[in-house]
Amino acid sequence: MSASESKPRLGFIGLGKMGAPMARRLIDTGHHVIVHDIAAGAVRELQEAGARAARSPREVAAEASIVFTCLPSLDAVREVVTGPNGLTHGNAFQILVDHSTTGPEFAETLGKELAQRRVHMLDAPISGGVQRAREGKLSVIVSGEQLAFDRACGLLEALGKVHYMGSKSGQAQMMKLVNNLLSQIATAATYEAFVLGAKAGLDPDAMVEVINSSTGANNCTLHKMPRSVLPRTFDYGSNMEITYKDISLCMKEAERLGVTMFLGNMARQLWGYGVNHGGAKRDSSTLITHFEEWAGVQVIGKAARERK
User: Fold this and answer.
1) In terms of CATH architecture, what is 3-168?
2) Is the pTM of the predicted complex or chain greater than 0.85?
3) Disulfide engineering: 20 pairs with which of 15, 28, 51, 112, CB 3.0-4.6 Å?
4) Buried (b) or exposed (e) across 178-189, using 16+ Cβ within 10 A?
């Protein structure tokens, strides 16, 4: 038996901006991966990379013992896992590794439902963006039963650095929400600050250079601004509706726990404004265009100016 034949058959459902490069990482490390997505084009690209296509989640779970999901909404996760053609109808299905950001309450509930069917669940939300997904350098935050984690850990290491938060379902989701809260508040503050600087006549490229050598540096100044905003490509990664969903889940947990969130709720309102003003399917970096409109100025880098 060859090494590839001795490895477990894997399933991957959800081949969007993050899911597709993650599935490709598993294929590239020599695993037999069965994929499914509602977008036929995404499936074809993975087939060309060596995956086999399935017509439904049920068909994936008929062969794959460990199935990864990376989906945009709670409803999509539930439909894929427990729907009429869901994973729970497949006889080979043993472990669900859910990379979607769903919040701890949903993860706990789904984990209990799957346990009744003798299926283990690992909630394993991810952070890092599309480029790091391609490079296998994501942060993979995991919680769930230790035995299931031990079986999946080696697979997850192909995707990035693995952080195990313990056996309690939902803990990884909570950690992801806390991380996203910090990131989204810092991003909104960065956009506001750069618009102020541009209005005052500061050069955007110089602002990036100075801030990244100073105390204001953050993920947005280091990556989003120079890569997507200053060149005006607005192609950093997730859609704005995903960002809004994530911070809304965080605010829901804060309310449930009785924690006052002044900055978090303000950030949620900002992302909500972007979503409700035509930005739901646009890249989340386009939030800055609303700050620009309010101030009557644009934050344009040298490369974008030269293209004009």
Assistant:
1) 3-Layer(aba) Sandwich (3.40)
2) yes
3) 15
4) ebbbebbbbbbb
